[in-house]
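We treat protein structure as text, and this decision shapes the records that our systems exchange. Because each token names a local backbone shape, the row as a whole describes the fold. An entry from our holdings is shown next, in its original layout:
>
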Amino acid sequence: MRGRGGDASSRTLIESILAGSEAIVALGITLEELGEDTMVLRMTMRPDLTRDGTIYHGGPVASLIDIAGDMAVAVRAGGGVPTISLRVDYLRPCTGPRLLATARLRRYGRTISVSDVDVRDDQGRLCAVGRGTYSSIVG
């Protein structure tokens, strides 16, 4: 099953992957929007995801970036794919009741794919960016 995003089967695939991972469920990450080669994931603030109750810890933010980038590739690949490398730049403290991660599939190759991810707070402020390299082979 290889899709292009935005259709019902792609949405079902992504929601299934998200719900099937205890780590993703524990972070409270959900699918907000799905388009062709783009998607938006949401992570809602909880005290256990923060440094001090108001600022998200960098670990959950990096996980959000990795998961969003992976899911952008997964739509094309037909399932979850392994991460090869991940880079995260924190631009400002991530605060507010939720974060939205917008992933864009930059390149889908036969064996390697790349996604770029922007993370914004509830006021639309860019607080982190990331780039992930993923296997294009489900596994």
Summary: The chain has a mean pLDDT of 95. The longest helix spans residues 58-77. The two ends are 14 Å apart (CA to CA). The beta strands are 29-35, 38-44, 83-90, 98-108, 112-120, 126-135.
